[in-house]
Amino acid sequence: MKFVAFERKLQGTGASRRLRVAGKVPGIVYGAGEPALIELDHNALFHALKKEAFHSSLLDMELNGTVTQVLLRDFQMHAYKPQVQHVDFQRVDATTKITKKVPLHFKGEAESPAVKTDKCTVNHVVTELEITCLAQQLPEFIEVDLSGLTRGHSLHVNDIKLPAGIKVVTHGKPNPVIVTPVDAAAEEVIVAAAAPAADDKKKGKGKK
């Protein structure tokens, strides 16, 4: 994805406030050289932030006629308004090693024996993974094939086929669960157990 940034010459709380009033977002680009103060069109950035790829892939930033590859590193939103307050990007090159969360895209769930034959539902324990890799190897997402999922057997991190050069950061957990099939009978028990509790609350409200 490509976006256009403009050089920001003024800094400070007052200057940033005036930029926001003018429909701009103050930002900074750091890494691989001197930090650069930038500003972006608010509406364009706001809509870009709604796209998954803007968060999890390399971006082409055009600044002063030069295109540089960057990663979105952070952004701040207004406490209650749909307004982006500030944005941070990191410059990257062929030697930059990064740690970043990427989304998981699941496929084949409906065709798996757990769902198709045993009528289980699939509980997605995690929907993204934190990985380390060279910036140039960063995948937009990681595809997880669930077509072989069977009843009673969860899918773990070690079961996922990762592209070369990519390692998952597990923060001390040896082999975290990604998805697990849940029996329909187990779901019925959970619902049945929750129903009396809800009835008790209703009865309690009627007491003085």
TrEMBL record:
GO CC entries: ribosome
Matches recorded under Pfam families: Ribosomal_L25p (PF01386), Ribosomal_TL5_C (PF14693)
Domain Large ribosomal subunit protein bL25 beta: 97-180
Alphabetized UniProt keyword annotations: Ribonucleoprotein, Ribosomal protein, RNA-binding, rRNA-binding
InterPro entries: Rbsml_bL25/Gln-tRNA_synth_N (IPR020056), Ribosomal_bL25/Gln-tRNA_synth (IPR011035), Ribosomal_bL25_b-dom (IPR020057), Ribosomal_bL25_C (IPR037121), Ribosomal_bL25_long (IPR001021), Ribosomal_L25_dom (IPR029751), Ribosomal_uL5_bac-type (IPR020930)
UniProt key word Repressor: no
Keyword Transferase: no
Residue span(s) of domain Large ribosomal subunit protein bL25 L25: 5-89
PANTHER family hit by this protein: RIBOSOMAL PROTEIN L25/GLN-TRNA SYNTHETASE, ANTI-CODON-BINDING DOMAIN-CONTAINING PROTEIN, RIBOSOMAL PROTEIN L25_GLN-TRNA SYNTHETASE, ANTI-CODON-BINDING DOMAIN-CONTAINING PROTEIN
Family from the record: Belongs to the bacterial ribosomal protein bL25 family. CTC subfamily.
Complex and partners: Part of the 50S ribosomal subunit; part of the 5S rRNA/L5/L18/L25 subcomplex. Contacts the 5S rRNA. Binds to the 5S rRNA independently of L5 and L18.
Role of this protein: This is one of the proteins that binds to the 5S RNA in the ribosome where it forms part of the central protuberance.
Name recorded for this polypeptide: Large ribosomal subunit protein bL25
Organism listed in the record: Roseateles paludis
